[in-house]
Amino acid sequence: MISLFRKYNPVNTAWLVLVVILLRLVYIAKAPDKLDFIFVETFTRSLVPVAYENAFSPVINILLAALLVYGQALLVNYVANFYNLLGRPSFLPALMFVVASSIFTPFLILSPPLICNFLVIWMIFKMLALYKADNANALGYDLGMLVAVGSLIYLPFIYFMVLVWIAFIIFRPFNIREWLSTILGYITIFFFLAVYYYMTDRIDSFFNIWLPLGTKLPTSIVIKQYTYVLLIPVAVFFFLSFTKISALYYKSYIHSRKGLILMVLIFLIAGLSFYVKAEFRLSHFLLCALPTAIFFAYYFLYAKWKWFYETLFLLFVAGIIFFQFNNF
Fold this sequence. Notes:
Blueprint: H1 2-5, H2 12-29, H3 58-82, H4 92-100, H5 112-128, H6 137-153, H7 160-171, H8 176-199, H9 203-206, H10 225-248, H11 254-272, H12 289-302, H13 306-325
């Protein structure tokens, strides 16, 4: 399987469909009777004047989520190859994104983080473009707007504004106008939201939108024990990936190195922003799927022992499917 996706062959788009279906087939067969879909935050719910929460049956919900993941995987693959993040073209970023987006069953259904992953991909494309941009004011404005749109869908996305500023530090010499353009882009979206609140006589509640940002970090996270088991191979993959990256890091182009640093920061910021939501949902960590896919793809692209990495990958996929069979 890995050897197949190491090649940059358009036929792999068809094989990718089979992988997406395989990783969801069991969950489709054992789908619960009801799956709620919350598309936006409560403070923007009135902007969507239709009842959509129960519009899809569980099977349709899972299939639509699979379609979105497939589209995102192709976009991730395009970005990784366009900016040469891995050193040579392949379809491994797409494969790894599909796998990373299927690790836990909450990842397999429609959710705000899944929708926001389109914005994450778009933002990464723009942030990587900062390196060679003559003037980044427009890019900064666009990035600020994307963070704002993501915040309307899923409030923890607001912390991606920090990521935008860090990207400017990584890729650009300091320019105050470029930094201010990101803030202006963010304010633009929320200005129109404030106008909407004012027109509907709810301007007082507009300022309560950001109250969850003051939530204290939880002292513990309660998740099912079997979930920890799936984290073991994930940790192994991360260890192997960073070992391979550290060995080849200084042999890469400067832009590729900066891009890998950006992926690490995306993973950390996306992962740590979970505490903003009062009700913890495992689906939040879908925001970490893109950098995870890049890290895993890096290892599998340069791994030497075919029998080892092929066996490791197949065991991981088998583990994902196994835990879909068993809820313990």
